[in-house]
Amino acid sequence: MGKRSSQRKTALLFESDDDDTLSSSSTTTYDSQAQESDKLSDSGLEQCLDKLSEKRGSTRESALLFIIDAFTNKLQHQFVEKNCITLLHQCLNSIKKGSSKEISLACRVIGLLAITVGCGNSAAAHEILEDSIPPLSQALKSGSDPSKISSILDCLAVITFVGGNVPEEIERSMQIMWQFIYPKSGPNVNASKPTVPVLTTAISAWSFLLTTISGWRVNSKIWQDSIAHFSGLLDKDDRSIRIASGEAIALIFEIGQLEKFSSEAKVSSQSSVHEGNNSREGCAYIQGLRGKILNQVRNLSVEAGGKGLGKKDLNSQRNLFKDITDFLEDGYCPETSMKIGGDLLNTSTWSQLIQLNFLKHFLGGGFTKHMLENEFLQDVFEFTPRGKHVGAEHIMSNSEKRLYKSPNSIVNKARTQLLNKQRMISQGRNVGHFAVGVGIEE
Q1: I want to staple 160 with a disulfide (CB 3.0 to 4.6 A). Which of 51, 82, 164, 270 is the partner?
Q2: C-alpha–C-alpha distance, residues 293 and 85, integer Å
Q3: What gap in Å lies between CA 326 and CA 323, rounded to an integer?
Q4: Do 102 and 94 meet the contact criterion of CB atoms below 8 Å apart?
Q5: Residue 303: predicted pLDDT
Q6: SS3 letters for 172-192?
Q7: Domain boundaries defined on the chain
Q8: Which residues are CB-neighbours of 265 under 8 A, at least 6 positions away?
Q9: How far is residue 161 CA from its own chain's centroid?
């Protein structure tokens, strides 16, 4: 308190000083430069928005690349406030008629747009989700380019994470992803097996969305055979598939609803004939499945390196499955810390870790920038940068100030719904933690 009081007194002395005009002038100049920079940035983005209507595909691709760079490295609040839905529909047009490269770029723009808008605005974030589902679903059915499909799945995960308001909307997107994880579950039983990158992306995207659904609200009819499928994927040759599947399994155990992801246990537990015996059979099946998975993750935590396999990936696998083993045996989740600016972003659950890894992957080099300035992501991870508001007024445009301060702003609307969502997730984590060893006895 003394230091702050001293700083306030110093400020008052400067305000009464004759040199105050210099300080005020420099601040005004700084604000003017920031506003001019905003205008130039918006001008470039608006030109690119116009170019998305051009007939030449290469012109549209260049415009999308510019927009991606702008949205990755800066929060484009002012531009989004004026052009959100227009940009969305231009990108959806690119997805409908563009090349695989253009579709991939447009998907990334839509994801970045959703992250910028933030959760909870029914006129923006939810509209992005609902308007995007049909063209994204159609694009997944046309062509088999792995890069395009992976980009669509990533985009679908992000816009659902941000704009999905109820479990049904989230599970709708998860079902689309599940058809790539388990092709036989889709309408086309003869669908070809997905490539390794697509399968890995689909598993990671599916797990990312599962982190937003409380365990007791999971639709057991949809996912009742998923745990056995993930267990089978742990035996695949590709390490990236094993790692993604391991994270999914850890998350299922964390939310404490293993029986909802197991078809045989579900059938046994719901039968009305010889209820006592069936209940014991269901419990025995769950215990057996848990034991099988525990043996699998133990073996993967000490796997010897194979010929031609990268040591870095091997170490990542060993470390991950060592953490999963500790979790299944003792209930301890891995704790991680990541330095953001001068502060630490901490995770203490599988849910948080999966969210962090997915968003780092999607935002790439822009992750730190967004964590320091994007209040939606800060709320997701309960992260508050030191000196968050210091100097913020000098670099924010008037439009951005309105966006943050207005009671009806995207950010303020988002906070209420997001905090409600986070409380539900937190409750689910607590239940899951205690259910790791207890749920199998139900």
Answers
A1: 164
A2: 46
A3: 5
A4: yes
A5: 85
A6: HHHHHHHHHHCHHHCCCCCCC
A7: 40-172, 395-424
A8: 258, 259, 282, 283, 285, 286, 289
A9: 6
